[in-house]
């Protein structure tokens, strides 16, 4: 069931991205559109690298202090997802990817992920095991 939903989501996203690229191509021309897509991917990669480094350092700092690095790990996941979305050609994925990378919009995504995870844990859809054969 979830695979069917994911396939439909992929198809809808692909069609929306393609429509956005074609519309932008008609509006400003093919070469400027191609240039914007390349610039977005390059700048997104640089931003993903710097923000990823910051979240990695924050997680290391929290671990050294003996505190759980939960928010830093979620920030890292958002940065990875944002970087992937910026590499995918398209303007809609670039907008979402950029908002995942920006430090002032990332807490919105982090809060949504925390709510989703809490629902999964409460429903029993996600379980934490202590290690192989119950040890650890």
Which secondary structure elements does this structure contain, and how are they paired or packed?
Elements: H1 2-28, H2 30-64, H3 70-87, H4 91-101, H5 106-123
Helix pairs in contact: 1-2, 2-3, 2-4, 3-4, 3-5
Give the tags.
136 residues; mainly alpha
Can you walk through the features of this model?
It is built from five helices and no strands. The protein has helices at 2-28, 30-64, 70-87, 91-101, 106-123. Helix 1 crosses helix 2, helix 2 (30-64) packs parallel to helix 4 and helix 3 (70-87) packs antiparallel against helix 4.
Order of helices and strands: HHHHH
Q: Please state roughly what percent of the residues sit in beta strands, choosing from under 5%, 5-15%, 15-25%, 25-35%, 35-45% or over 45%.
A: under 5%
The counted number of beta strands is: 0
Helix/strand class: mainly alpha
Radius of gyration: 19 Å
Percent helix range: over 70%
Shape descriptor reads flat
Largest sheet: none
- Uncertain spans, ≥5 residues at pLDDT below 50? none
Head-to-tail CA distance between termini: 34 Å
Mean pLDDT: 87
Number of helices: 5
């Amino acid at each position: 069931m979830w695979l069917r939903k994911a396939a439909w989501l992929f198809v809808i996203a692909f069609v929306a991205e393609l429509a956005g690229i074609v519309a932008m191509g008609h509006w400003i021309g093919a070469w400027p559109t191609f240039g914007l897509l390349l610039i977005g991917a390059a700048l997104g990669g640089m931003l993903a690298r710097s923000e990823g480094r910051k979240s990695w350092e924050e997680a290391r700092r929290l671990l050294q202090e003996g505190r759980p690095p939960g928010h830093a790990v979620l920030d890292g996941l958002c940065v990875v997802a944002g970087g992937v979305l910026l590499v995918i050609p398209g303007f809609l994925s670039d907008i979402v990817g950029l908002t995942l990378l920006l430090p002032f919009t990332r807490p919105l995504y982090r809060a949504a992920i925390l709510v989703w995870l809490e629902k999964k844990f409460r429903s029993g859809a996600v379980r934490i095991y202590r290690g192989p054969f119950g040890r650890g």
